[in-house]
Amino acid sequence: MLQRFNALTDQRFNMHVDSTACFIPARDYDLAATLASGQAFRWSLHDGAWEGIVGSRWVRLRQCGGGIEAETAVPVAGWSWLTDYLQTDLDFGSILQSFPDDEPMRASVTACRGLRLLRQEPWECLASFILSSTKQIVQIEQIVALLCDRFGEPLKVPAGCGPVHAFPNAERLAAASEGELRACKMGFRAPNLLATARRVAGGELDLRGLESRSASEARAALVALPGVGEKIANCVLLFAYGFQEAFPVDVWVGKAIRQLYFPKRRPTPQRLRRFVGTYFGPNAGYAQQYLFHFARTRRQKVGRAAPRAPKGV
User: Fold this and answer.
1) Which residue, 135, 179, 199, 248, is most buried by CB atoms nearer than 10 A?
2) Bridge partners, 192 (sequence order)
3) What integer pLDDT is reported at residue 311 of this predicted model?
4) Contact 258, 271 (CB under 8 A)
5) Helix, strand, or coil (residue 120)
6) Exposure pattern of 271-283 as b/e (b: 16+ CB <10 Å)?
7) For residue 100, is pLDDT > 60?
8) Is residue 311 situated within a structural domain?
9) CATH number of the domain within which 260 lies
10) Mean pLDDT on 78-90
11) What average pLDDT does range 82-90 have in this prediction?
């Protein structure tokens, strides 16, 4: 792959020509932090490269100097579907400058700089986060993998790679039984996913249409779905639609916010909601992802339930 990639680069590769490989310029982009930060659940690391599924395509991504090497199993005409997914054209500097200038935020950016938000397909994002309730990331990945293997369409992969499947659409899941979904180890989430799939497949909610609505209108439409509360709705708003003011708060984010910003107080849930809704500015969702990934990685390193406010940063 690398030899073919280098040849394409030498010819100033045209991203609109059919090919199975390209180079995507991306400054200040941390591919590992982005793909492993709990936004999406279909990426895995193999021999220094990330393999996953974007829409109906198997993709391999590798961080390299100044950007990302990308490879598909079959030739594609244009790569905008991938650059949009990875959000490589975003004005990243302005995002960071919009964050509050405080010690916890500076520590999070220092530890996670280059972490980006992905732009995912709405149905896959919604269904995945319905399955995420009370689960850790590795468990969500396992459930999603089972769901795709049993209900998704098979995709072409390079020789030597195991079989992979697309994420099943709402119509396919709407036709499944609750028992079939429970067999994917999703437990109590199965009836919620099934009911939501049937509403989407039946046209009760046009997920694509939410793109043109305000964040509050889109959130109201999402929380009306079975198994979707404020946190899941905000994840979908942020990771599928790019509403960067959306600020998902789960158990770990809530604990991190309390410990980092209220170390000697016990804010009420109402006070906490007001704080996250106003303090972090127009890119609050981006700030949240930095705080979440920072808290999670520190917890893994030091074995604490939540990070302590760093000193001297």
Assistant:
1) 248
2) none
3) 33
4) no
5) coil
6) ebeebbeeebeeb
7) yes
8) no
9) 1.10.1670.10
10) 95
11) 96
**Over the stretch 236-255, which tens digit does the pLDDT of each residue have?**
999 999 999 999 988 878 88
Please give the average per-residue pLDDT across 148-155, as a whole number.
98
What burial letters (b/e) apply to 193-219, b meaning 16+ CB within 10 Å?
bbbbbbbbbeeebebeebeeeebeebb
State if pTM tops 0.85. Answer: yes
Alpha-carbon distance 161 to 46, whole Å? 11
Q: What is the CATH number of the domain that holds 150?
A: 1.10.340.30
Q: Which domain holds residue 281?
A: 90-113+243-306
User: What letter does residue 100 receive in the DSSP assignment?
Assistant: -
Of 301, 239, 252, 297, residue with least CA distance to 135? 252
Give Dmax over CA atoms of the chain in angstroms. 60
Domain-ending residue, one of 222, 239, 256: 239
Distance CA 223, CA 227 (A): 8
306/183 Cα distance (integer angstroms) = 33
Residues 6 or more apart whose Cβ sits within 8 Å of residue 44:
50, 51, 52
Element (H, E) at 38: none
Average pLDDT over residues 101-119: 94
CA 87 to chain centre: 12
Give the pLDDT band (50/70/90) at residue 299: low
- Please report, as a single letter, which amino acid is at residue 52: G
